[in-house]
Design a protein that fits this description.
By secondary structure, the chain is of the alpha/beta class. The chain has ten helices and 21 strands. The protein has an eight-stranded parallel β-barrel with strand order 1-2-3-4-5-6-7-8, surrounded by five helices. Strands 11, 13, 14, 16, 19 and 21 form a six-stranded antiparallel beta sheet that branches. α5 packs parallel to α6 and α9 runs parallel beside α10. The protein is globular. The two termini are 34 Å apart.
Length: 505
Amino acid sequence: MKKIFAIIYLLPVLLSSYACNKNAIAQAPEQPKPPSKEFASAAVINQRLGRGINLGNTWESSWDKKESTPADFEKIAAKGFTSVRLPIRWEMPERAQFTAPYTISSTFLNKIKSAVDDALKNKLHVIINMHHHDSLYARPDELKAMFLAQWKQIASFFKAYPDSLLFEVLNEPHGNLDAGRWNTFFAEALQTIRETNPQRTVLLGLAEWGGVSALSKLSVPQDSHLILTIHYYNPFHFTHQGASWVAGADAWLGTRWRDTELDRQEVKDDFKVAVEFSQIKKMPVNVGEFGAYSTADMDSRIKWTRFMARYFEQQQFSWNYWEFNSGFGIYDPSKNTYNTGLVNALMSDAMTAPTPVTFISLYSSNFSNPQADGWKLYNNDASASSTLTINNGKAVVTISSAGTQTWYIQLMRHSTSIEAGKTYRLSFNAASDNNRNIALAFQQSSAPWLVYGSKQFIITKSEENYQFVFTPVSTDAKANLVFSLGNNGLAPVTLSAIKLEEIKF
């Protein structure tokens, strides 16, 4: 997860006697009786989720081991939220075994039960998940049995709860738990859950840290009680400026989000595939995390948050803001005060008119002679092979071997001048025979290869225009403009009409 503090791989020392201790496989104590009618559909549940918030840096925190209180849910409900997401770290030695039968502590399960009950008492829908399962991300094949055994216990423990309790199988799969493995892991976890919860709504997240760019790699099981959940923190240099757990983030301090039509269009472009996916699959969408860190200027945070919330609602997405009472939060527990601007941005502000801008043209591509225009194709590893041809004034990169990293194939233009503090738009047309990811970056032309701005795109069969707006924190008269095309199949990529413009506010 990209939020609070560096990911620390947990290396617990397990006592062999643990399997025999008092925390044997937990049996749920007194719980609500099963509902007399069938659970609502995923679409109805998603409508009920509505406007929600994460109770973050609490049950998933390993550094201060905070726990929720009944007052947390009272405060959340009092502000008008209709759902709460509870990120939960299960993989701690005092909470669960790392050896078969992978028993979850009954004490811990009952603590989570109390939190769920507190949420339900306040008429909040509640999402419980598996968060920061760092060992699983690092060693998925080794710990798959643990992952499935934990879900078997969690599902059984909460099987009598009403449909206002939802399960989210895993937060932000990444690392060695790649997209292919995640498809298998989710399907098997869902099958395990369905043994005791045949109708409960389950949230399906995305690989590669939960962002929409991994959507093209997702396989969805046949199941009518699923919601797709997506995390969104773009532009990352804005939302995570000054974040201590992100390398180099201090250099981004001062990055603003101005709420121009260009800024808004980038968001719409990012979510286009998700909107289409939802329509085709008839699958509702939840934005499970979005937020901008407290070191960003407040005016930008409010503008960004307001636009996201209203835009998600226009798409009929439910959402859960990250988060309630910590670094991204709307509430300061030490002062017992709310950030009124953020609360209003989430809950009451209407969509505003975008900020007007003008443009100064700096560069337009000329692929009739790509070398003279400064473009060159690089195959950066023996596992990658591609060629560059020109067709009707467009650059066509034909890929015969994709390699295992996106940067193994790069179409690059050298000596592109950018200045610190100025804001630029890079736009281009692109198409591919199959939907595929490509990455765009402005970077330093020599070691240490600093990246001044970057973004991933999903391009489709039809030629469309894409754009990237960024504000570099360094000046470089010889920056590389790079399209990275490796590790995404053999479909050729066509690029044209590449334009760099300075934006004036």
